User: What shape does this take?
Amino acid sequence: MDFDFTEEQLMVRKMAKKFADEDIIPYAKENDRNCHFPREILQKMVPLGLLGGPIPQEYGGAGLDYISHAIITEEVGRADSSLRTTLSVQISLVEFAILQWGTEKQKRKYLPRLCSGEIIGCFALTEPDAGSDAGNQQTMAKYKDGKWVLNGSKIWISNGGVADIAILFAQTDKAKKHKGITAFLVDTKTKGFSANDITGKLGLRASNTSALFLEDVEVPDSALLGNVGEGFKIAMSSLDNGRYSVAAGCVGIIQGCIDACTNYARERKAFGKPIGEFQLVQDMIAKMVVDRDAARLLVYRAGDLKNKKIRSTVETSIAKYYASEAAVRAASDAVQIFGGYGYSDDYPVERYYRDAKVATIYEGTSQIQKLIIAESVLGLRAII
Assistant: This one.
């Protein structure tokens, strides 16, 4: 692995940081307070190629490598995890899935529109009884009169209420269990498709999260993503990409905590001197810096393997597990350093604290990541 950034990667970081500082951070607090989904910021990302960075240029993307993708995701995560979630779903779960599993016609139809922000996508896998047990899909798809008819529901779907297209997973043959799951590309305007927004979330308040309902939703054979029965394989490969972007976004949270705390610790005085002179404050900031560097290097290791087209499931799980847990630690200590002010949204650390927790839950909990990691060492699959 080469630890030196390319000239392109350095330019990407400079561009992404400038955009985050000028076009995301100034609006993050109010968007969080008002639970406002920032479409206007998404549109500003388009001319910079931020909605399709790693997608090949022939399909409307910028053709960036995975390290550049992580750099962008980190900078967006530093500014606002809600927007980072929207971006992660759009690129890592939806665009990458279509790129890897779609037909040429599907790629030409959807990828340019996703990369340009013309349409928004969601990844509809989770159900009320199928979270970590993703193979326990209850949504059904039955073939009837030359069409697939979908019935069921999904929950905790990021972008679900604002999406124009959904990658939706349904059981086509229950006898085959997870091998009977199939993926579909479903237009959300299709008759029988509806969404209810989920409100009152602890964090990610400026991102959209919804429950989806399907009542006799009819789609043609051309809506199949991959082949019948490949849905579970598609879901797992997509989560590899999703976990990568979650990990990179968590590095951004840690960096945001470091930035906020170092500035505050220099300015805030107690007992007649800056609190940054107190050893216990320095201890908390030092741990943030170590966690940031460790998490960032784990993300880059996974990205380096992805660039080389080498399978990186375990390395991605390690990065996601470590970075998400480290983000929670950093945000908790950041609130502690700010004291009473950390309990107010006058400063960003309380938002980091609320936003960080979900990263240990969605796209595979920390416990699931540990099972993946342990299985790779033991060669034994845990019973879950």
About this structure: Residues 97 and 311 are 16 Å apart (CA to CA).
